[in-house]
């Protein structure tokens, strides 16, 4: 059973507008969340993270929002740029588990930013 | 340069072959991971090594055999694979035991089983 879900396989956004990527999780023990970005023929690269003690974390154009009660997080990219076109993976971990940073991944959302 | 290097990038092998995938990291990390990514599926954690000791085997068939001779190197030995094992195999490394240290991934080995 998939514990981290990204229900939108793809998203297209005009350059300069906001991109919002969504992620839902089912395991209430998850307390750390990450977003990774993946270009074709490359491995995922870390983008931004958030601990469950926060509800927002911002890094430049990227902001992650966490709603623990809804078990939902989102990644906002504003303004979106053509170079942001990639597959974005949501991941989660639980400190209580044996390996504190063992990650559970979603299936990814392919973002296309249209110039 | 991601700091995590995987070789080979592509591998085609028959079901009776034996081959190995290699992963090397120069980030000073003490945790290393093998993941499998199949089409339209999330990354699946296969094995975890912390300080060269295997701490996780996520119900992976024995035809996959990991080896971690030191904290910088990780191997995945392959033997008698099945067509459904065709996938992208990703290696990652991180600071051991800390959630706040994100995993760094290599570019993967694309494996095709004939």
Short structural description:
Helix content of chain A is 0%, strand content 52%.
Task: Describe what you observe in this structure.
- The complex is a heterodimer of chains A (115) and B (114).
- Chain A has strands spanning 4-5, 10-14, 19-25, 32-38, 45-51, 56-59, 62-67, 72-77, 86-93, 104-105, 109-114.
- Chain A is mainly β and 115 residues long.
- In chain A, the strands form two sheets. In chain A, strands 2, 4, 5, 9, 10 and 11 form a six-stranded mixed beta sheet that branches. Chain A has a five-stranded antiparallel beta sheet with strand order 1-3-8-7-6, with no helix packed on it.
- The mean pLDDT of chain A is 93.
- Helix content of chain B is 0%, strand content 56%.
- Chains A and B meet through β4, β5 and β10 of A and β5, β9 and β10 of B.
Task: Please specify the SSE layout and strand pairing.
The complex is a heterodimer of chains A (115) and B (114).
Chain A: E1 4-5, E2 10-14, E3 19-25, E4 32-38, E5 45-51, E6 56-59, E7 62-67, E8 72-77, E9 86-93, E10 104-105, E11 109-114
Parallel strand pairs in A: 2-11
Antiparallel strand pairs in A: 1-3, 3-8, 4-5, 4-9, 6-7, 7-8, 9-10, 9-11
Chain B: E1 4-7, E2 10-13, E3 18-25, E4 31-37, E5 44-50, E6 53-57, E7 64-70, E8 73-79, E9 87-94, E10 104-105, E11 109-113
Parallel strand pairs in B: 2-11
Antiparallel strand pairs in B: 1-3, 3-8, 4-5, 4-9, 5-6, 7-8, 9-10, 9-11
């Amino acid at each position: 059973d998939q514990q981290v879900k990204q229900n939108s396989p793809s998203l297209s956004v005009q350059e300069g507008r906001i991109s919002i990527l969504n992620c839902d999780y089912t395991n209430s023990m998850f307390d750390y969340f990450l977003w990774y970005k993946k270009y074709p023929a490359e491995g995922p690269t870390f983008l931004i993270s958030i601990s469950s003690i926060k509800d927002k974390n911002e890094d430049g154009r990227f902001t992650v929002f966490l709603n623990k009660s809804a078990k939902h997080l989102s990644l906002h990219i504003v303004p979106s740029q053509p170079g942001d076109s990639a597959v974005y993976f949501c991941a989660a971990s639980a400190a209580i588990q044996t390996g504190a940073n063992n990650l559970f991944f979603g299936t990814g959302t392919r973002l296309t930013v249209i110039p | 340069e991601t700091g995590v290097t995987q070789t080979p990038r592509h591998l085609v092998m028959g079901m009776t072959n034996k081959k190995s995938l290699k992963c090397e990291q120069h980030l000073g990390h003490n945790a290393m991971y093998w993941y499998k990514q199949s089409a339209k599926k999330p990354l699946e954690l296969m094995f975890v090594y912390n300080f060269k000791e295997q701490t996780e085997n996520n119900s992976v068939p024995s035809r996959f055999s990991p080896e971690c001779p030191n904290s910088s190197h990780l191997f995945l030995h392959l033997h008698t694979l099945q067509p459904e094992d065709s996938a992208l195999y990703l290696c990652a490394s991180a600071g051991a035991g800390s959630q706040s240290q994100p995993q760094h991934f290599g570019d993967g080995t694309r494996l095709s089983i004939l």
